[in-house]
């Protein structure tokens, strides 16, 4: 099978800048284990100056560069550019991680599968800057259009299907995001007061709320430390965090690490006692899946699809969105109870083994491909 996989894809695979790029990469590596598959990744990116194609084994990656100036939103520009590559390469099936890629697939007349990674109607309120707000305004329409025309939709959370329940023609398949095996390794020496956030730094993640909640935690447990890893997408949030930490004497206990390698990230998960998320909107956050694979309890707000991932009181704790005091109280409860952390982590790992292993996710995904192609032949 000749497969086109459309979505963000890292230039440096040791440093992956975001959840969807990680999914595209992990899925590609899993699919590449099947010699009967010829995998062609198509990724629009700002990281290359001109279009370029790289081939390794049975994986081809075409990086499509963005122009330095833009009038047309990138989501619309991507449709025409990806469609051109699809018409040139003629794959048997297109699997897109973005609505624009799926749009390109069905415009090219190809069987198309679309994975939904976010709910744009919910996420648009967090867009900053004119171009991002324009893109966020366009995204709901483009997503509905792509879902309506796709041969199949992959829902990474029941939250997705619940939101799009009115689109009656979508053939949904429930498949979780894959997590690479590095996160399944046996835990190293846990730092019993280490708290970890890993993810991009922008408004939707509510990093200020997380740091304020940690301030409450540190006031009650002076040994507690918070490590924040991830690419800085909105510098003003990083600046606020740096200034708040300095102003409140937290510089030795709040560590703003920025973008780290996959190896460093796996090490931080292994060492952490508790994984933290204080978002205002989520679908199926990779940090929670990674925490479960690493046998770590999670404390998260009840944002979007989070309650479908974290079993409150069993694999972690879920608190109301924005409730810094409730978050701090649950964190303190976990930090002082080693047995509870181990028990929650063990149950989380048991769930993760069947849900997030890349090999299992890839097998389910190939089943969808085969079903779509069989339906097209009928």
Could you describe the 3D structure shown?
With 378 residues, the protein is of the alpha/beta class. The chain contains 13 helices and 14 strands. It has 2 domains: 198 residues, Glycogen Phosphorylase B (Rossmann fold, 3-Layer(aba) Sandwich), CATH 3.40.50; 175 residues, Glycogen Phosphorylase B (Rossmann fold). The strands form 2 sheets. It has an 8-stranded mixed β-sheet, with helices on both faces. Strands 11-10-9-12-13-14 form a 6-stranded parallel β-sheet, with helices on both faces. Helix 3 packs across helix 5.
Instruction: Look at the structure and name the CATH superfamily of the largest domain.
Output: Glycogen Phosphorylase B
Q: What is the N-to-C succession of helices and strands?
A: EHEEEHEHEHHEHEEHEHEHEHEEHHH
**What is the number of E strands?**
14
CATH topology of the largest domain: Rossmann fold
Task: Quickly describe the structure.
This protein has 378 residues and is α/β, with parallel strands linked by helices. The protein has helices at residues 19-31, 74-89, 99-107, 120-123, 130-149, 158-163, 207-220, 235-247, 262-271, 286-293, 324-335, 338-355, 358-377, and strands at 2-6, 38-45, 52-56, 59-65, 93-96, 112-116, 152-155, 172-174, 194-198, 225-229, 254-258, 274-277, 298-301, 316-319. The protein folds into two domains: 2-178 and 357-377, Rossmann fold; 181-355, Rossmann fold (3-Layer(aba) Sandwich), CATH 3.40.50.2000.
What's the SSE blueprint?
Elements: E1 2-6, H1 19-31, E2 38-45, E3 52-56, E4 59-65, H2 74-89, E5 93-96, H3 99-107, E6 112-116, H4 120-123, H5 130-149, E7 152-155, H6 158-163, E8 172-174, E9 194-198, H7 207-220, E10 225-229, H8 235-247, E11 254-258, H9 262-271, E12 274-277, H10 286-293, E13 298-301, E14 316-319, H11 324-335, H12 338-355, H13 358-377
Parallel strand pairs: 1-2, 1-5, 2-4, 5-6, 6-7, 7-8, 9-10, 9-12, 10-11, 12-13, 13-14
Antiparallel strand pairs: 3-4
Helix pairs in contact: 1-13, 2-3, 3-5, 7-11, 10-12
């Amino acid at each position: 099978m000749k497969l086109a996989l459309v979505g963000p894809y890292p230039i440096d695979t040791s440093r992956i800048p975001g959840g969807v790029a990680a999914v595209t990469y992990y899925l590609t590596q899993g699919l590449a284990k099947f010699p009967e598959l010829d995998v062609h990744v198509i990724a629009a990116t700002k990281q290359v100056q001109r279009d370029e194609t790289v081939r390794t084994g049975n994986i081809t990656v075409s990086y499509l560069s963005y122009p330095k100036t833009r009038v047309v939103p990138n989501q619309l520009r991507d449709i025409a550019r990806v469609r051109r590559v699809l018409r040139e390469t003629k794959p048997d099936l297109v699997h897109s991680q973005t609505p624009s890629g799926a749009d390109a697939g069905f415009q090219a007349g190809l069987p198309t599968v679309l994975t939904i990674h976010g709910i744009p109607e919910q996420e648009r309120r967090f867009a900053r800057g004119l171009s991002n707000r324009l893109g966020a305004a366009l995204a709901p329409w483009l997503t509905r259009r792509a879902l309506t025309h796709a041969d199949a939709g992959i829902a990474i959370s029941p939250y997705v299907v619940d939101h799009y329940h009115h689109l009656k023609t979508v053939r949904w398949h429930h498949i979780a995001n894959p997590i690479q095996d590095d996160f399944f390794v046996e835990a190293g020496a846990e730092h019993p007061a280490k708290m970890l956030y890993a993810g991009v730094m922008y408004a939707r993640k509510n990093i200020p709320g997380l740091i304020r909640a940690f301030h409450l935690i540190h006031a009650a447990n002076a040994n507690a430390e918070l490590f924040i890893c991830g690419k800085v997408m909105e510098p003003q949030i990083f600046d606020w965090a740096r200034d708040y930490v300095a102003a409140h004497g937290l510089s030795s206990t709040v560590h703003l690490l920025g973008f780290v390698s996959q190896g460093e990230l796996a090490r931080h998960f292994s060492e952490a006692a508790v994984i933290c998320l204080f978002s205002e909107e989520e679908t199926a956050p990779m940090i929670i899946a990674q925490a479960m694979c690493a046998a770590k309890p999670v404390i998260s707000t009840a944002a979007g699809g989070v309650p479908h991932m974290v079993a409150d009181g069993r694999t972690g704790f879920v608190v109301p969105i924005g409730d810094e005091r409730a978050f701090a109280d649950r964190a303190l409860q976990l930090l002082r109870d080693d047995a509870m952390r181990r028990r929650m982590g063990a149950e989380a790992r048991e769930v993760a083994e069947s849900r997030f292993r890349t090999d299992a996710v890839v097998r389910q995904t190939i089943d969808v491909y085969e079903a779509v192609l069989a339906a097209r032949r009928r």
